[in-house]
Amino acid sequence: MSQFLEISGLCARIDADGQEKQILRGVDLSIPPGEVHVIMGPNGSGKSTLSYVLAGREDYEVTAGTATFHGQDLLAMEPEERAAAGLFLAFQSPIELPGVNNANFLRTAVNAVRRARGQDELDAVAFLKMAREAAKALSMAPDMLKRNVNVGFSGGEKKRNEVLQMTLLQPTFAILDETDSGLDVDALRIVAEGVNRLRAPTFSALVITHHQKLLDYLVPDRIHVMARGRIILSGGPELARQIDQEGYTKFLAEVA
């Protein structure tokens, strides 16, 4: 089976306060089409760094390894090229954009991707109809499209707005970097349902989380444990339940 995402021996570092810090130390990961995979692991293990490197954040330098997406060299692509190719990253801490209307921002993003894919752009009427329907499915307040991007939003509203972006952009591969952090049970369910509505043979996702509860709604195909900058163990959904009950100490001791 061909892979949506194929990562081999990926190493990356960041220049922090004038000192280079190696974070990823040989990540190997394959995600087939149509599957949702989850990465769990202790804080500082490199989970968010992996998501940033895949999305093309310039702060991080890839020092070794490869990452291909739909058979293309992902690491050679600019961030906007990755988005046009179908990759989406939902941030752990979505930023606020004062003075930028949420609906205008979303329409601009959607039409930029549509142009890159050779599709017709959406006019304001068609876009707003689509956006309102998607927002309603996420139980978002009607005025959130009229407000500035994430300004004055609660933590849960920011996360739902990220899922709204994902829904409208229709990616083929989504990375959710702890999008569930700080959410109550109802918001967790709504975020998970937003991902589940996209599930199809042409869509895959990589979800980074600490919470078993989210996985009850997502029902992932594969769980990966990350520690010390690499994947140390992979298994089925039962692995997440084991981690929830026992923590990471046992797994870390086995690879020490």
Automatic annotation (TrEMBL):
Residue ranges annotated as coiled coil are: none
Q: Name the PROSITE patterns on file.
A: ABC_TRANSPORTER_1, ABC_TRANSPORTER_2
Q: State the name under which the record lists this protein.
A: Cysteine desulfurase
Keyword field contains Nucleotide-binding: yes
Tell me which family the UniProt entry assigns to this protein. Belongs to the ABC transporter superfamily. Ycf16 family.
Recorded hits in PANTHER family, A to Z, give: ABC TRANSPORTER I FAMILY MEMBER 6, CHLOROPLASTIC (PTHR43204:SF1)
Q: Which CDD domains match?
A: ABC_FeS_Assembly
Asked if the record carries the keyword ATP-binding, the reply is yes
| InterPro entries associated with the record | AAA+_ATPase, ABC_transporter-like_ATP-bd, ABC_transporter-like_CS, FeS-cluster_ATPase_SufC, P-loop_NTPase
Species this protein is from = Acetobacter okinawensis
Q: Where in this chain does the record put each ABC transporter domain?
A: 5-253
Q: Which UniProt keywords apply?
A: ATP-binding, Nucleotide-binding
- Example GO molecular function term? ATP hydrolysis activity
SMART domains tied to this protein: AAA
